[in-house]
Each structure stands twice: as structure tokens, then as C-alpha cells.
What does this fold into?
Amino acid sequence: MKVGCIGLGDIARKAYLPVLGGLPGVELHVQTRTPATLARVADGLHLPEERRHSDLDSLLGQDLDAAFVHAPTTVHPEIVTRLLEAGVPTYVDKPLAYELAHSARLVELAEQRNVSLAVGFNRRYAPGYAQCADHPRELILMQKNRIGLPEEPRTMILDDFIHVVDTLRFLVPGPVDDVTVRARVEDGLLQHVVLQLAGDGFTALGVMNRLSGSAEEILEVSGQDTKRQVVNLAEVIDHKGQPTVRRRGDWVPVARQRGIEQVVGAFLDAVRAGKVLSARDALATHELCEQVVRAVQEQAA
It folds into this structure.
């Protein structure tokens, strides 16, 4: 199975390439326009010269079975369009694009060509989060905070807050009939944002504070007098009277803890089975992010 990885930045090097490079039956090809990065990463993976590519044309000439796109978001539309037009099942690191119209166009193109398109919402596959789907969820609270990183609203929401948005969508137990957004913007930079989703019998809150003094990610789901808390995707604490703590095992890889191994496996299994994956649900997350962006811009005006 020939698999291409386009873009060799931090996420590719830390999360995806260690997984892809160790999969049996996968012939990995890598592509970046930066010669020094190409040599360093390919050397680390012990890839022969014929699996190293400095341009997309060279990579597409390998008759790929699947591709992973980890290039900067600004070039996603161009790269993904070429892959889909070539009939290559494609996995894209989130977001599909910064502009909703571009994301929608890519999803429509995939459907027109009957080619798989998947977006990297790995938290849906992270064991701690996936297990929360089996817990009562009358109230859902997710915080993803950073230290000293206020940012332009669209970039922050589509690059980072999108994980919070998608996790809430994944965990809400029914249709959402009310969306509320609150935010603080100073000098054009988004400092914090709060998203509330509500429906029949449930409320979900997503929070991101870029001036929180702490880099943390905490998910809590509660209902029927019980609560489950997941801290930094590694520690699961069940509260029912006395708390019970389950920590990530010392030998559990970070990629497995964060759902990277699982989402890569699910995508490649679908490709092997000839199953065409739709990105329609991922597009719904992008649509909700666009709603958040517009609400923040209106509040900042």
C-alpha cells in the first residue's frame, strides 16, 4: 500500500510519521519543498531516495493508494484538490481550509469524484474521550487553554478551537437547538471564547482562554449524579461519591493516547476495504466554527 505524507512540520513529525513509518504493509513516501527538512525526516525514517519527493507532481506519479496532508492550512485547498482529482483517498489535518466556501468545495469535489476525504479530528478516537460517549451527558464542559497566545480570531478558531467544537458535537446526546457565543477581543486579538450548545435535556460548554496561565485540556461529562473527567487526554477520573483515577500506562504511546494511531488505522482500513469516507460531518464542524467566527467578529465590532 503506497501512502504519501505531504508536509513534514511538527504535527507530521511528532504524531503521524512515527505511526505511518511503523505500519506493516505501508510503503511510505514523503514530500516537502524544503530540501533540508526532506533529507532530515527521510533519513530518520530510513527511506530510500525513490520515496523522497520535493514536489507534488513527483509524489502523484507514484500511483498512491492514500495520502495524508499536513502542509500549512493556506495551501490545503490547492493540494487536496489535486489529490482528489487524481482519485487519491485523502486525510487532511484540520481544518480543511480557513474559509468555509473552500472547505465546502473540497467536500463537494470528493463526493463528485467518489473519493474518500477525512479530516483529522483525532480526539474522537482518543480512548478517554471515546469512553465519554458511554457516560450520561446532561452537562458537557471542555476547556482547552494556553499561556500568552491571543490570536487573530479566524486563525485561532479554525486552527485550535475547532477541536473543542468538534468534540462537543461528537459528545452531545441529541440535536442542538441553541448556539450561544461569548468572547473577549482586545486590539484585534481573541483572548478567550466560550461556546454553548443546548438541546433537549443537555447543555455543552466549550471554553478556550489564551491568557489562562496554564496549558491544559480538560473534558468533563456529567449526569445522573455521576461525573467523568479527562485531564490532558491522559488521566480519567470517575466521580461517584469517591473519585477513581485511571492514568495512562507508562508504556502507552502518546499517539495512542491522543487517538492518532486509531484514526490513522480507521482511515487506512477504509481505504483497503474500498469504503468511501464522507467529510460531510466534518464540514458541519467547520460550519459551526464559521458561526463562532462571525459571532466573535460582531462582538468585537
